[in-house]
Amino acid sequence: MKSYRIILAGCLLLGACGQGYAQSAETLSAAGEEQLESSTIIPEDDTRWQQLNAYTRHKMDLNLADAAALRSLGLLTPLQINSLLAYRRLLGKLISIYELQAVPGFDEGLINRILPYITVDAGLQPSYTLRDYLHKGEHALLLRYGRQLELPRGYAHTDSTAAHYAGSPDQLLLRYRYNFPRYASWGVVMQKDAGEQFFKGAQKQGFDFYSAHLFIRNYKHIKALALGDFTVNMGQGLINWQSLAFGKSPVVLQVKREGEVLNPYASTGEFYFFRGAGITLQQRAWQLTAFVSLRKLDGNVFESDTLEAASYISSFVTTGYHRTELEAAKRGALQQRSAGGNIVYDNGNLRIGLNVIQHKFSAPLQKNEQPYNLFAPEGDRFFNASIDYSGTWKNVHAFGETAVDAGGHLATVNGILAGIHPKADVALLYRSYHRAYQSLYSNAFGNNYRPANESGWYTAITLRLTPQLKMEAYADLYRFPWLKYRLNRPGANGRELLMSLTYTPDKQTEAFIRYSHKTGWENCIGSSNYIAPVVLLTRRSWRCQVSMPLGGPWKLRSRVELNHYTKNSDKQQGWLCFQELQYRFTTLPLRLSGRLTWFSTSGSGSTLYAIESNMLYNNSVMQLNGDGWQYNINIRWGITKRIAVWLRWNQVMYRNAATIGSGWDEVAGKQKSTIQLQAQQLF
């Protein structure tokens, strides 16, 4: 048996070497790009990219990795993880990375995506001491500067009037982090947003945002220990999920929330994290987690009109901006105490967890009186409990979570992933969220920003038609039992359909085509009725994207996208086309890339989105409206093996615009330009 596997691995290796290998850790697949473009809940969370980049230098050994380690990649489905572990149990350790092509469910595209982060070693399971935790990792110091060259209206001032924004338009980020993947992490983050002061005024302490963490993982019985800033992810996101999570996208089988309960926080977002301490203890198949947090949040706090009533919170402020006197007054306006934990039984095939969390605020949250907001969260105490599960039997993986809030309202999500054929996998997911279910920091699968007032069925299929051609599709049918924002009709339903084809003839070429169709209901804008009637809304979109080498050091990426928006008599359409060239010098540690985008939309309903992987850890999503051009130029210079510098120039130009933006961020003229500089040193 072993000699057969050696011959097989050798043949696969020869085939792979014949095609060549060039995969950048900063490169995303076309489906992965769209997945990020549709995820806007936690746009500043770059934890995933930090983790993947660390794996490029401390590669994960597939012969030693357990299910938790494989999940930390964020690139494998539960079916693929189970398939790899079953392959190892049946045939022993992998002989070569390229033996992955013999693992059911692993196609060329997937293997290409994970190759930068993995290795295969025949060594023994390491036993690290505390000294190893302190010395085997890597220190990284990152500095990022950015500035918009055309000053918005908020920076204008005269001899007699001060500018609306108190600080300069410069953006600054300084981050130090020590990272030993899967074992230890500590560091600090310091950030100043554009418009905020620096060592004066409201920011006399220097940077506007400071964050620090110390995190230890897999030390004896301590599965995880968090001090300082950390995130908590439990179940399927019904009661708490603070890390990046995806919903519906061309990666149709990634519908299950997966991640460890406690994770270090080293990003620049100022809202979705806890500050305190947490610990996970493990004894054989049992895990126990507990955490506490005490932190201040930004919010709109108002004094009551009556003497008997105390102050109340009208809303949280999640932007992290403290540029004006009013924004600075909202900083730390309320205090939040949080505590919770879970107990989990996990024997490898079956996982069952009990989760609880409670929040206490210094002032009660008071909802507005709009009908759609009748069941919105309110009060100064929030409590949630849930039971989650997952299990694998042969080629079927089932998962789900059922949660309850303090009012007894239920929310549940349950799904199945199944390998029905060596070349076909399917997913089926059902969710039912009570209209009055209340939760904070939740992020479950669905259409709303929180799991409430929704039920629906989601089905998906992946077909590996050939080793190079893959088809993916999903259909989602859903219903909103109560009113919601911009929808005055209870019981409104909707549906979404998507189908995509991905062709990867070799490791450097990818062709992607996708069609999506969405139908739902929305209030009619401009109606003279006291209660606006609802009308049918339809969105259709086509996308075609190609990434391919042009010979030598040149690489081309192209995209064409069209969309149509129809709402009653309002019909809009939009399109974009971009061409991107990448050049890697053969004699210098220098990479250049440039992109030119031509776009046109006829209204906000036909808005287009395009992600730009401009610098390490900084994937920005461009929101394109109107008619114009956008271009950027990126330079990466590896000064040494441990020091790298990035430079980026970006400009958008509109054809028929007197101003760009609105409010205090309005810019006079037809163009807007930004420049960014980043440097990183590893030591």
Quantity of strands, as a count: 33
How much strand?
over 45%
**Overall average pLDDT:** 90
Counting DSSP H or I runs of 4 or more residues, the number of helices is 8
Low-pLDDT stretches: 1-26
Distance between the termini: 44 Å
- Which term fits the overall shape? globular
**Helix/sheet category:** mainly beta
Gyration radius over CA:
25 Å
Helix fraction bin: 10-25%
Report on the biggest sheet.
24 strands, antiparallel, barrel
InterPro entries: RuvA_2-like
Signal peptide: 1-22
Protein name: DNA uptake protein ComE
Keywords: Signal
What this model shows, in words?
This protein is mostly beta strands and 683 residues long. Among the domains are: 1-37 and 59-130, Orthogonal Bundle (DNA polymerase, domain 1); 465-546, no CATH class; 552-683, no CATH class. It has eight helices and 33 strands. It has a 24-stranded antiparallel beta barrel. A two-stranded parallel ribbon has the order 1-2. A two-stranded antiparallel ribbon has the order 11-12. A hairpin with a 2-residue loop joins strand 15 (379-393) and strand 16 (396-405). It is globular and about 75 Å long. It starts with a helix and ends with a strand. The model is unreliable at 1-26 (pLDDT under 50).
